[in-house]
Amino acid sequence: MADTSTFSPSRRFVIAAIGIGAAGFAVGCDSRTATAAATGPTTLTSLGDYVRVGADNTITVYIRHIEFGQGVSTGLTTIVAEEIDADWSQMRFEHSPADNAKYGNPAFGGMMGTGGSTAIFSSWEQLRAAGASAREMLRQAAAKKFGVDASEVLLVKGKATAGDKSATYGELAADAGAITPPDPKTLTYKDASAYEFIGKERDPATGYGRLDSADKVHAKAQYALDYNPEGTLVALLQRSPKAGGKVASFDDTATKAIKGVTDVVQISNGVAVIASDFWAAKKGRDALKITWDDSAAETRSSDAIFADYRAQLAKAGHEARKEGQGAAALRGAGEVVTADFDFPFLAHAPMEPLNCVVEYKPGESATIHSGSQMPTGDQMAAAAVLGLQPAQVNIVTMLAGGSFGRRATPDADLVSEAAQIAKAVNGKAPVRLMWTREDDIRSGKYRPMAVHRMTARLNGGKLEAWGDRTAIQSIMEGTPFLPPGTVDTSSIEGGFDIAYAIPNIAVDVHLVKQPTSVLWWRSVGHTHTAYAKEHFFDVVAKKLGKDPVAYRRELLASHPRLLGVLNLAAEKAGWDTPLPAGKFRGVAVHHSFSSYVAEVAEVSVAADGTFHVDRVVCAVDCGIVINPDIVRSQMEGGIGYGLSSILGEAVTLKDGAPVQSNFFDYNVLRMNQMPKVEVYIVPSTEPPSGVGEPGVPPIGPAVANALLAATGKTYAKLPLGTKA
Amino acid sequence: MKLTINGKDHEYAGEEDRPLLWYLREDLKMTGTKFGCGVAACGACTVLVDGQPTRACITPAATLEGKAITTIEGLDTPAGQAVQKAWTELDVVQCGWCQSGQMLAATALLTATPKPSEQQITDGMNSNICRCATYHRIRGAVARASEIMG
To answer: What is the mean pLDDT of residues A363-377?
Structure first.
């Protein structure tokens, strides 16, 4: 039996040493010409792998993480801007090429990838070093140019000065590129008290703010779906309605009669209709007649799957945590409380549906424009399909219209399908594979369904024992992220590491196998573990007659950072002040992705039982804050995304096929459901940690706890719907 | 037939049922108008037709002859300019995909109702989905745009 110390690392904790040496500063001069939309052609000089300074005085930071809304383009660039002593107006960002050696994510075992809220914490030391190294190269170049000792050169806001001599970084760039980069061990960093950007507020007067705002507001931002070279063909793929189904046969007579349809090809998991434009491809696909072989397909309905999960819960699963007497302590004197928490499949539903463009030259090369969250994985997958070497596949990472985990696919589903289609038409034209919204909702990959069986034994006014047994489909099994033979504990992350001081704890998990395809969904295991843990905690607190905040303080006495956010949120929400009739508060606190978040939800319940979340007060401790406004925006968005899922989202199966298909029945949050949100940040000198995901987990249980306060009921079936 | 987009005439000779969205994006390469659902359920493809918010994903281009079509690329009315300024000032965007549609919807709202109440903002913006849930800032930015308009 495993215990927590031998458990498999979840993906974000696969931390290799964050080696600044490996990040490389040895490139020296690699001048090249690039065309920047705003500034026209300019000569760019590389000062290390991450920093390029243009003759036009721009500083472009290569970001190895994709920008899909979470603000990494600004956050990562800020770290460099600080150490290189730039003026903010100089700063630009560009997605780095696919290259594990230079741009691997140490938190992903050196593979390129964005996820697990790792961008800032995995880049912090690396980009500080990149900025400081480039700064010293500029200093040396200035010293040479001015004929002074390097120690006499002052670097301020993108300019080097010594006495009456001065030069912009742009003027020094070419010379700086010829300087040998300093030994990383000799680099020194700014004291936090001297920061110009890190930790500073957005300021419209100076232009300090998100680097991607203006382009997105003025429709200049380029996403994969906006990449549209002349002659691009559009492919739509008809996949099996049931996970695991295969094409038995198909009739494309009607499809081929549609004007604009150029090709119909069968690939590994469906039939692709290729046409001159989207509308023709859509009409062509609608006209396809496919007979499916469902012999290996999922054919159960959601209710039957839940029943099968529940049947497993009668037995013990893989042990993930044992404190005291473990499960044995769940029986005995006092009162035993238990509830099954049911979680449905969830679709990520990013606003820009999956798509990419493959430009394939048989036997030579392929260029793929994609909102790629794992560029080197995509590169290898495309190379394998197309019979090319990975180096012959150029992945161009575009901005992406959201992801929430959907674009981080270990099996590179999007690019593999697209490459198969490009190969089938022998690269005769650029091919765009597009997912429609129906494809997105109906064809996976989902946040797994799960049942948590929560059990508590109360005795003598105390919580004696805590049990959390889960049945769930593993995300990581079968991927490179999980060593064979290990148990995927990311499935119950946030549950097995429950922080409350309870004498007896038993957490175990059944990892079920089924044909449906599941994937990490913003905050992954925490989406359900935090809900079950924090809501059940309030069920217990109520039984014991304890105040939810006071009881948490009591059982979190040895967890200062959890206590810190709990206390701040409770204080700002006015936890101890009375609310008007019909209004109720609920609290939840949770640790995920190395950050700590507490949320207090204020919920009003109307006479007819309908409820509305009016206000959410959020406190976050994410270590050193690079950009407080982006931290706030991620908490606001995380709260909205989490709330969306617990109020209305579910993909349910009927005889194996998803029932929902688009935004009229896959109910995502709209403005009328969005609460007012206040975010407070705990000052910290700890290393920066994640903010993309940690805002999500506490909102569900905070709302459920407010409803519990209103009605006394346990809210164990999700989504909650509209009535308390 | 002629289509008037952002004040400029374009000759449309495509299929009768082809939605405006794909004519804009694929033929004219005006990619600021986004695809989100294809069934008028999300608002990402919102354009203005004679000032009214309209879903380009289900509106056949061929039905728009003689009408004034405004996209994000041509948002140069006082309300439209105020909206874009407010959106930038407040750093509303996250992924940005839905924001063209949001800004077109906000422009239509503020043109009809220059001083909207909180409820009017919600009602005017409720059919536009943002999966990043930037709703909190969109509310603020609509109010800010109203201030900028004076």
So the answer is: 95
pLDDT tops 90 at residue A489: no
Handedness of CA A115, A119, A120, A124 (dihedral sign): positive
What's the whole-number mean pLDDT along residues A140-157? 97
DSSP A535-589: HHHHHHHHHHT--HHHHHHHHTTT-HHHHHHHHHHHHHHTTTS---TTEEEEEEE
**In B, which residues are within 8 Å of A351 by CB distance?**
34, 36, 42, 44, 95, 97-98, 129-132
pLDDT at A22: 27
The tokens describing A272, both together, are 């692709």
Report all structural domains of chain B as residue ranges with CATH numbers, in order of start.
Answer: 2-74 (3.10.20.30), 78-149 (1.10.150.120)
What pLDDT, on a 0 to 100 scale, did the predictor assign at position A367?
98
State the DSSP code for B19: B
CB contact at 8 A, A245 and B58: no
CA distance B147 to chain A (A): 16
More confident residue, A14 or A437: A437
Q: Kindly determine whether residue A437 and residue B31, on different chains, have CB atoms separated by under 8 Å.
A: no
In angstroms, what is the C-alpha Rg of chain B? 15
What is the pLDDT averaged over residues A477-496? Answer: 89
SS (H, E, C) A469-526: EEEEECCCCCCCCCCCCCCCHHHHCCCCCCCCCCCEEEEEEEEECCCCCECCCCCCCH
CATH of A11-217, one of 3.20.20.70, 3.30.390.50, 3.30.365.10, 3.30.70.2660: 3.30.365.10
Return the residue of A nearest to B30 by Cα.
Answer: A226
Q: What is the pLDDT of residues A199-250, one digit of tens each?
A: 999 998 888 999 999 999 999 999 999 999 999 999 999 999 999 999 999 9
- Which residue in A629, A662, A671 is closest to B138 by CB distance? A671
Distances (CA, A) of A323 to A39, A330, A499, A507: 62, 12, 12, 9
Sign of the Cα pseudo-torsion (A516, A520, A522, A527, in order) = positive
Q: Where in chain A is the domain with CATH 3.30.365.10?
A: 11-217, 225-295+354-434, 302-346+446-711
Could you tell me if B19 lies within 8 Å of chain A, comparing CB atoms? yes
CA distance A642 to chain B (A): 10
Beta carbon pairs, A and B, within 8 Å = 172
Q: Which residue of B has its CA nearest to A279?
A: B18
What order do you get walking across the sheet with A318-323 strand by strand?
A: A318-323, A504-512, A462-473, A450-459, A335-343
Q: Residue A40: what pLDDT?
A: 55
Spatial separation of the C-alpha atoms in residues A275 and A260, rounded to whole Å: 5
Closest-CA residue of B relative to A637 is B133
Question: Which of B27, B97, B102 is the best residue to mutate to test the A interface, defined by the most A CB atoms within 10 Å of its own CB?
Answer: B97
ipTM of the complex model: 0.98
Q: Do B96 and A216 touch (CB under 8 A)?
A: yes
Tell me the pLDDT tens digit for each residue of A256-267: 999 999 999 999
Residue of chain A with shortest Cα separation from B81: A218
Percent of chain A with pLDDT strictly greater than 90:
88
> Where does A302-346+446-711 sit in CATH, by number?
3.30.365.10
Nearest CA to A669 among A692, A699, A698, A629? A699
Which of A228, A279, A280 lies at the smallest CB-CB distance from B19? Answer: A279
Identify the CATH number of the domain defined by range A225-295+354-434: 3.30.365.10
